[in-house]
Design brief:
single chain, about 325 residues, alpha/beta, Spore Coat Polysaccharide Biosynthesis Protein SpsA, Chain A, 2 domains, seven-stranded mixed β-sheet, binds 2-acetamido-2-deoxy-beta-D-glucopyranose
Length: about 325
């Protein structure tokens, strides 16, 4: 550091003070010019990994740390305001599945409703972890958060779903869902959609009769490093699927970080100029990009061939590792 002596060798008092002031001003200008370096680019996640994510050794959430030892099967539910009886029914169903029970299931709920206490959810649903998240990015933001935070410690298989699942009602769990999890699921499954075939559709690079989503073709190119071929892709809606950690890790962490950055972006971000129609809105709690990511999982996990719907109707509804 400067001492007065080294800054002012051979100078009289007044010139010395001026020189110190000039040095201080220069330091202030440098700090001002470099301020961008200290700004936070990734909302919500920045706190967790400003420096460490490059190394892919990131499990900064302490309460999820405890799941490491038990890594057969995780269930990740994104909760907002779904009926708790229904959620409890879904959890009971999963816990009772023969095929999954022996894999040591842990259930993790991400609570995106700031009006409901996570302690209350934990008490009502008796799950392994309840973790509060800000209500941004729809269910896709929740899944990306889980993947990014646990990239190195993911369970062999993770079932992702919104807390209100297709196929589950208070009265019953529909037979196709029972069949898929009980009969079709094996530890060799890489990706399996968990919605009925009526929630699946075939797109042509982001287009079908109802949709024209240019970003899907762009993301295809980003993920596969090839242009989107016109041979049709199957999309499964609702963000309800199970996937192996191998499939997740076939894509580098930075892809998930980038998708997360866009899906959780604040309202000033250009991504919100993407809209379904000129009169609809894109806002952080319901970004249009969330609907893009909802349609992306089959591509991201390399299970988008156009015969997927047929395979699901024939009870072989999965891609295998
Ligand atoms: C990444 O890991 C290497 C070796 O373990 C270490 O030297 C480096 O500082 C780490 N980088 C960050 C950004 O944490
Ligand atoms: C389940 O847990 C038991 C006991 O902790 C352990 O021995 C077993 O390897 C685990 N199974 C899987 C598939 O993780
Ligand atoms: C939480 O409660 C406030 C005040 O009652 C209400 O305005 C808001 O919409 C509620 N939010 C959710 C997510 O239910
Ligand atoms: C995607 O799956 C196909 C089989 O359906 C396989 O041939 C191809 O190598 C996989 N691509 C990647 C990048 O893993």
């Amino acid at each position: 550091m400067w001492s007065e002596a080294s800054a002012c060798d051979n100078l009289n008092g007044r010139r010395c003070i001026i020189r110190i002031i000039v040095i201080l001003i220069i330091i202030c200008i440098l700090i001002y010019l470099e301020r961008g370096r200290f700004e936070r680019k990734l909302p919500y996640l920045s706190d967790l990994y400003s420096n460490t994510w490059i190394n892919k050794t990131i499990s900064p959430i302490r309460n999820i740390e405890s799941l490491k030892r038990n890594n057969g099967f995780h269930v990740v539910l994104s909760y907002y305001a779904e009926d708790l009886n229904l959620v409890a029914q879904f959890i009971r169903f999963i816990r009772n599945l023969q095929s999954i029970r022996r894999l040591n299931v842990s259930i993790i709920i991400y609570n995106k409703n700031s009006n409901i206490s996570s302690i209350y959810l934990q008490k009502m649903l008796k799950v392994d972890v309840v973790h509060q998240l800000p209500n941004v990015g729809r269910e896709g933001g929740t899944y990306l958060y889980h993947i990014i935070n646990n990239y190195d410690t993911l369970a062999d298989h993770t079932l992702f779903s919104q807390a209100g699942a297709d196929g589950v009602s208070i009265k019953e769990v529909e037979s196709w869902l029972v069949n898929r999890l009980e009969k079709q699921f094996t530890t060799a499954v890489g990706y399996m959609p968990l919605v009925s075939a009526r929630w699946m559709e075939v797109y042509d690079c982001g287009r079908n009769i109802y949709n024209n989503m240019v970003r899907l073709a762009e993301l295809w190119a980003l993920i596969t490093q090839t242009l989107c071929p016109p041979d049709k892709q199957t999309v499964a809606y609702r963000g309800q699927f199970l996937v192996s950690n191998k499939r997740i890790r076939r894509q580098p962490l930075r892809i998930y970080m980038y998708l997360n950055e866009l899906i959780t972006a604040d309202s000033t971000h250009w991504i919100h100029t993407d809209r379904r129609s000129p009169v609809s809105k894109s806002i952080p709690s319901n970004p249009f990009f969330g609907h893009i990511v909802e349609r992306l999982w089959t591509v991201l996990f390399n299970c988008s061939k156009s015969d997927l719907i047929n395979k699901c109707n024939r009870d072989v509804c999965a891609c295998f590792d």
